[in-house]
Amino acid sequence: MLEKEKPHLIICTHSFPSRILQRLKKRNLIDIPVINVYTDFFMNGIWGKKGIDYHFVPHQEAKQELVRKYKIPKERVIVTGIPVHETFMARKNEKKGVKQRPHLLIAGGNQGLGNILDFFQKMNGTNRFLYSVLCGNNKALYEEILRWKQPHIRPLPYISSIEEMNRLYEEADAIITKPGWVTVSEVLHKRIPLFTIGYLPGQEQINLRYLEEKGLICNLSELSHYEQKIWHVLHDEIEQSRFSRRIAEYFAQIEQTAQDALKHIVLMQAKGYHVLSH
């Protein structure tokens, strides 16, 4: 494939091709610059580390790990956070407090009807909130919620438009989701309170651990009822202040956006600077 496509630059957002490219570079079989873009809040052992030209990492701890453990020069490790589309990087419009009837956006509909039924059961059937449920491609879930005929619960089919998804984030007072990297990263940029009601062992569990340690997510999975906890987090001034501070601390560590870092690397390469050579 490399011989056919002859790329000027390779960007890895998955660990397996990164590992393969590391081997090829160690054997001097290719000299194409390679960038790892880590798409979780941790770096698993499969990723190629040495021989990779640049690393776009999610946080400072990941940078320190690469520098100390793998002896990667610090100038080759850039803290970008987990990349998201530029549309989501615009901060959510400031508003005066939470709406009288908070709007909860529920993601993860592709996981099945059972999770959503369990969520509403643990919300005690309350209509103190407005709910928008992202059903994804789960038509059974979408049709089931329609049959409920509850005006405060709105099912949404698969959304392909980035602008529409951004609008939903702008409308929401909080997001209920699983700790996968895509939704979480987008929501962090919108500075919206983030709740999770479950996770899968492995990547989601490790992501959740980091997010909890940093105070960036509220884990509801151990609770038998959710309503009071969500209401408290959204209305308590101390909780809101803490969340705002933790979000600010998270973004303060970001050195560059992935977009800006990539533009700089491509520009230097175009000018003939050997910034990517070892």
From TrEMBL:
Q: Which UniProt keywords apply?
A: Glycosyltransferase, Transferase
Q: Does the keyword Transferase apply?
A: yes
User: Which PANTHER family does its entry note?
Assistant: MONOGALACTOSYLDIACYLGLYCEROL SYNTHASE, MONOGALACTOSYLDIACYLGLYCEROL SYNTHASE 1, CHLOROPLASTIC
A cellular-component GO term for this protein: membrane
Instruction: Give the InterPro entries listed for this entry.
Output: Diacylglyc_glucosyltr_N, Glycosyltransf_28_UgtP
- UniProt record similarity statement: Belongs to the glycosyltransferase 28 family.
One GO biological process this protein is involved in is: glycolipid biosynthetic process
Residues in Diacylglycerol glucosyltransferase N-terminal domain copies: 2-84
Give any GO molecular function from the UniProt entry: hexosyltransferase activity
User: Source organism's superkingdom?
Assistant: Bacteria
- Protein name from the UniProt record: UDP-N-acetylglucosamine:LPS N-acetylglucosamine transferase
Q: Which organism is it from?
A: Anoxybacteroides tepidamans
Metal-binding as UniProt keyword: no
